[in-house]
Every structure is written in structure tokens, then in C-alpha cells.
Structure of DUF3027 domain-containing protein:
Amino acid sequence: MPGAHVTGVAAHTDREARLVTMDSTLDAKEATAPAQAAAPSDAVAAVLSGAVEQARQAIVENSGDTVGEYLGVSFEDETAATHRFLANMPGYQGWQWAVVVAAYEGADHATLSEVVLVPGPTALLAPAWVPWDERIKPGDLSPGDLLAPGKDDPRLAPGYTATGDPLIDDTAFELGFGRRQVLSALGRDETAQRWHDGDHGPDSPMARATKRVCRDCGFMVPLAGALGAMFGVCCNEMAADSRVVDFEYGCGAHSDTPQPAGTGSPLYDPYDDGVLEVVEVIATPATPATPEEPEVSWTPEVSGTPQVPESPASLENPEAPEGPEASEPGEQA
């Protein structure tokens, strides 16, 4: 068997030597390849450059009056050149007409090779075609859809092989059966990286806004198996309920979050309003003020002559005559 080992090493060394020789040959060929096409001679370049109207007429014959501004000429090799015109066509904003002409050494005119519509630098193009299996994104699967894994999917391994996860391997061995396919080490690593970098990982905005982590939260239930070393499921309906969270993820609804200061206690000393007598006060309307009557003054009898109290009229008009002079006109005293 040592001889076989030596033989295998020798064969391996010989194979490496052949690969190095092939690489050197390819490098030599690439080094001798022309960097760019040869430019035409001055005579041929003049013939090719002078075919502007010929190229324009070719476009008109093929597509009608859709030729716009002339954009210039470029030489493809020593016998061919491409004339470009702006295309005036609805729906083809920024596209160009390209007319390829050819001429040989000593020719007095150019010949037409092809007329083609090509996109310009500012042309609106459709997005690049993507295979159907690469178009599906997380969240696209809806009820009733079927999505089979790809053939030889590296994320899966046959169920009869060891997965590297002690919990799965030991359980399958004890029960004597297993699933047809299980998560491979690559699939487990990709899943762990995706969850770690996701919205419930340590670098998410929610996690960076708090100092507490899910590792010591009472609402977190660790996963089983190898993924349980880094991840668990949140059971807090006010937080990331039913979602897989990284142990280093955290939020403001941690089980050890303290109550804000001052809550749960009264601001002032309580009192029992049952020992107070509540009396309803009925407001009485104010009574309007009555006008005051003028006072009547009189003096007692003097020298046997009775004194008549002053009348209100005499009070109002003090210059009015008193006694017999106050009688009506025509009457005799």
C-alpha cells in the first residue's frame, strides 16, 4: 500500500505539471493576440467615411423617414466602418441606426453590409433576463403554490447521512428511521447567517436601541438542535412574537425591563371622601332694589298754633307760597 500511495502522489504531481503547461500555453496565446483591429489605409478610410449619404439612403429604403441627426463613423477593421444616425421612432428614444459599409484597397466606392437598430447610451432598455428559479424571492410563495427544491440542492442532505447536528443524528439513530432529506451543514450555516443579518439580529435598529438581549429574556424559548446555540423564538405578543430571534437581539419589551419611575404610586396622600359631609348649595337669585320714599318732616305745636307737616310738593318746590296765599286764584281769604 505504500507503493500505491507513492504512485498516487506521482500521478497527482504529473497532472499538476500538465495543468501548468496548459496554462502557460494559454497565456502565451493571449499575449500574442492583437490588442485591437488594424486601422484602414488613408485611401480606404476616405472611401468608407464618404459613404454617409449612401448609409442614410439605405435606412430610408428599409424603415422610411426615421433617420435623425448624424452621429459619426467608427472603423471596425481595415476594410469596414459603421455610420451611426439618431433614430426618430416612437418608443425608441435614444436608439441609433447603425449602417456597416465595406471597401477594399483600391475601391472607388463602399458597399453596404447591414442596417441595424441598436441602443444608444441613453436608450431605455428592458431589464436583463433572469431565469425563473432566480426570480422567486422570499415572501412570493402564496397558498396553493408549489415550489420544489432544485436538483442536488446543497442545502439538503440525504436522511441516512450524518447531518452534524447531534440532536437529529442521535434521534434518527435511536428511532431507526429518519426523513428522506435533512438540513445539511451548508444549509444550516446559510440559515444562521441569514437570521443573524436579518431584522431580528444584533445589527438591527431595534437591537441597537437597547442594552438588553434576548439571551436572558424570559419570553425567549431556544430552538432545538445546533441552531439552538444562537437562536430562539420570541413568545411576547407585544414584541417579535413567533419570530426567530438572535440571542444578541433585543427590544424594549424585555422581561427585565423596569417600570418607569413614579408609576403605580399616587402623587399626593390619599384621603377618604366618605367621612366628608357633602352639602349642596342652592344659589338664590338676587332681589332688585326698591326706590326709597322721601322723608316727611314736621315740627310739634308752638304757641298753640298747630303746624302742618310739609307736603312732598313743598319739599320738591321750596319757593311755593304757604298758607292762605296758596289758594286758587279768585278765592277770598
Observations:
- Residues 1-26, 28-33 have pLDDT under 50 and may be disordered.
- DSSP finds eight helices and nine strands in the chain.
- Residues 282 and 288 are 19 Å apart (CA to CA).
